[in-house]
Amino acid sequence: MVLATLLFATMGVCVKLASAQYSAGEIVMYRGLVGTMFLFLVAKSQGLPLKTKVPAMHFWRSLSGVIALSLWFYAISKLPLATAMTLNYMSSIWMALFLIGGAVMMGGARVDPRLIATVLLGFGGVALVLRPSMGDQQVWYGLAGLASGMLSAMAYLQVTSLGRVGEPEYRVVFYFSMGGAVAGALVSLTTPGGWHAHTWKGGLLLLAVGLLATGAQLLMTRAYGTGKPLVNASLQYLGIVFSALYGVLLFGDLLPWESWAGIGLIVTAGLGATLLRARNTPKDEQHSVSES
């Protein structure tokens, strides 16, 4: 999960650079197209089947993920970036609420309150790093960002379910990438300005976005398919830390003390969630995981 957040943050740098030449819809489309083609070639070369026995689960995972991504891009276009990022990262809060609600309704295992505390601590760190703000005329855009976080949480839980029924990571990411390519193409067709011409720099940036997103999606799918959702949710906040450090190193951003304090909270939350996961995992399970 940590490596996935690093790849996502690196992808964000490429998206920022590519956005000077392409629209958001085009970037989403090419991101999905590169992932679909790459995974198709890998599957065919290694004889891995793309046919699935649970198409409905893939459909709902792809639908919720693509809508969440589209709403997030919409919120980014209308809100301050920090606000849109914070609303999207509320997916971890939504995930905790969904798990608590499910445990209560189904009478399942109790959700560890300490893991919920790490999620809340990490989100507090996100708020300190990004320091979101929103005007009175931006409420509807804020609701779009909030919905993107909620749908992202649903998508992550669906990824967990797909992992539990034995769906391999490459197949989950393949169908999600295909859905993103289709949705991005539809958005681009309805966006004023149409398609933009390619340059070598632009083409390489789009290729990097697609490959980085595919790698990150594979790692994230593996993490959610085999690990605990709330542990992954806490570690996912590290994407904000990597993005902030990229801003300092590549774009000359200056971070105030609140941001450094927030980074400290995010790292603390991630370490706390990981330690709790290790303590709650039986020794024989830890041994088998380390061998694999």
Structure characterization notes:
With about 290 residues, the protein is an all-alpha fold. The protein has one domain (about 1-115, about 130-235). The protein is about 80% helix and about 0% strand. The chain contains 13 helices and no strands. The chain has helices spanning about 1-20, 25-45, 55-80, 80-90, 90-105, 115-130, 140-165, 170-190, 200-225, 230-235, 240-250, 255-280, 285-290. Helix 4 runs parallel beside helix 7 (about 140-165). The two termini are about 15 Å apart. Residues about 285-290 have low confidence and may be disordered.
In short:
It contains 13 helices and no strands.
Count helical runs.
13
Q: Give the termini separation.
A: 16 Å
The largest sheet, given as strand count, sense and whether it forms a barrel, is: none
Shape: globular
Strand content: under 5%
Q: What's the rounded overall pLDDT mean?
A: 81
Count of beta strands: 0
- Element string (H = helix, E = strand): HHHHHHHHHHHHH
Helix and strand arrangement:
Blueprint: H1 2-18, H2 24-45, H3 55-78, H4 81-88, H5 91-106, H6 113-130, H7 139-164, H8 169-189, H9 200-226, H10 229-236, H11 238-251, H12 257-280, H13 283-291
Helix pairs in contact: 1-9, 1-11, 2-8, 2-9, 3-4, 3-7, 3-8, 4-6, 4-7, 5-7, 5-10, 6-10, 6-12, 7-9, 8-9, 10-12
What characteristics describe this protein?
single chain, 292 residues, mainly alpha, 13 helices, 80% helix, globular, disordered C terminus
